[in-house]
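Bumping with the actual sequence this time:
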Amino acid sequence: MKVRLLYFAVLRDITGQSESDLDVPEGSRPREVWQRLRASYEKLAGYDQPPMAAINESYASPDAVLHEGDELAFIPPVAGG
């Protein structure tokens, strides 16, 4: 099934894109998509736990089940002052 993955802030910098379509198996979860990203991008390898996730613009558990056509965004922590 296809999901749209959105990249923000440092994730956009690391991936070099703001969004992508991703083929994932039925029943995939944000946690599994995060593991796939970690395997694809060396700079993410040290981040075992996924950042906050949103599915279709609503915050979601990393263990929520994704469905065909969902939009998944990982929201990296930000710092500032």
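The tokens above came from a reply further down the thread. The CA atoms of residues 6 and 19 lie 4 Å apart.
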